[in-house]
Design goal:
three-stranded antiparallel beta sheet, Rossmann fold, alpha/beta, Solute-binding_3/MltF_N, eight-stranded mixed beta sheet, D-Maltodextrin-Binding Protein, domain 2, transmembrane
Length: 392
């Protein structure tokens, strides 16, 4: 898994460490910090495309995300086999981007903050949109997000607390005296009074019921899981800290950790089946598999030269080799290369340096251990005798 984020201070120091900690079991193999000042993301994306991981978790601004997905689209990184997951910083802005951006993000799985609009919230949104449109007519009809409502409620909480504390009086006195000390933020009785007033806040705000419990905000965050398809996105379901994944916000027992309950996901490139998320690096050459051109036991290995450029092989040894590859989470392209000498000659003359692996009916001996490493044997070592059966 690769973590892509915007190279700004508040992201790198506050959000990314927590995100990386939450994803520690997912084996993050690379972290890429993008800057809005970069002229092109070409080098960074080429580096990511050359790696085995095809799972990308993206946390940056919508402006940077548009540039990122534009470049990824050009490089074929939004096709079959890739998985893109975006955080609320991007997913929460999908309602405000045009159709060309949605086209670039087909198959993206997004997480966004969710809250059920209240009557006063809907009224606030209408008033906000009217005023915003009158002041910025060319910007379109923008809609504030949950973070805006929480910030609005926080300002109200501070304002209410200041009217009840001595801080407002002190500030007015300083303003009247024309003496505003930037270091006024000293821990004084007035400041503690303001802090206590904020912690005692209890009112119905735009984001919901606003109050504190154990010095922490009591706001229960619900996250909506969406899937970018067509001209917009599909709402798959929700995730709650105490309940896990669910199709609705109704309380239920247990903690559902699997997304299967949300139904099928449309992935990049069009498939409904879950991509492996890991493939062979694009820069990697074919695995060179040495096979003996002549064998004593065809049941173990038979080599056929189909053309000047292609060799095929079959038999028990090849079947075992292919079964091992099936257990990999990514594809590993290979080619069979025949050799005409004996196993000992191949090893003793250091010819194995021309190959990556050897597949055959090779016996494991102490002398050969000096040159190569062996996989597990097909059967346990031992001696056996073959004798004719005599009837009594």
């Amino acid at each position: 898994m690769s973590l892509i984020y915007e190279d700004v201070e508040y992201t790198a120091t506050s959000i990314i460490p927590h995100l990386a900690d939450a994803l520690q079991d997912a084996d993050i193999d690379s972290r890429v910090a993008l800057s809005s000042y970069d002229s092109s993301f070409s080098k960074e994306l080429e580096m990511l495309r050359s790696r085995q991981s095809r799972v990308f978790v993206v946390h940056n601004s919508i402006q940077l995300a548009i540039r990122l997905f534009t470049e990824a689209y050009k490089k074929g990184m939004t096709t079959d086999g890739y998985i893109w997951i975006t955080t609320d910083a991007i997913t929460g802005k999908l309602d405000h981007v045009n159709s060309s951006v949605i086209t670039l993000m087909q198959g993206v799985l997004g997480v966004k903050n969710y809250f059920k609009p209240r009557a006063q919230t809907s009224d606030f949104i209408k008033r906000f949109q009217r005023r915003f449109h009158s002041e910025y007519p060319k910007e379109g009809r923008r809609k504030p997000q949950l973070s805006s409502f929480i910030a609005y409620d926080a300002i109200w909480a501070i304002a209410k607390a200041m009217t009840k504390s001595k801080v407002s009086g002190e500030l007015k006195k300083m303003q009247n005296d024309s003496v505003i000390d930037p270091l006024f933020v000293e821990i004084s009785e007035e400041v503690w009074s303001l802090l206590d007033g904020i912690k005692q806040s209890n009112f119905s705000g735009l984001s919901g019921e606003f109050f504190f419990k154990d010095n922490k905000s009591s706001h229960v965050y619900a996250f909506q899981i969406v899937n970018v398809v067509g001209k917009s996105y599909r709402e798959l379901g929700f995730w709650l800290p105490d309940n896990g994944f669910s199709k609705s916000l109704k309380r239920k027992e247990g903690n559902e950790t699997s997304m299967k309950i949300l139904g099928q996901v449309y992935w990049p490139g069009g498939p409904w089946s879950v991509p492996k998320g890991c493939v062979s690096p694009t820069s990697e050459k074919l695995l060179k598999v040495a096979v003996p051109a002549k064998t004593v036991f065809p049941e173990f290995l038979t080599v056929k030269k189909e053309s000047d450029y292609k060799t095929s092989a079959e038999g028990f040894s090849i079947n075992v080799f292919k079964k091992v590859l099936d257990h990999f989470s990514y594809s590993l392209p290979y080619e069979f290369i025949p050799f005409n000498c004996s196993y000992d000659s191949l090893l003793e003359h250091n010819q194995m340096r021309n190959y990556d692996i050897l597949v055959g009916d090779t016996s494991i001996s102490s002398g050969r251990y000096n040159y190569v490493e062996f996989s597990q044997p097909y059967t346990a070592s031992g001696l056996a005798m073959v004798v004719p059966v005599k009837s009594d």
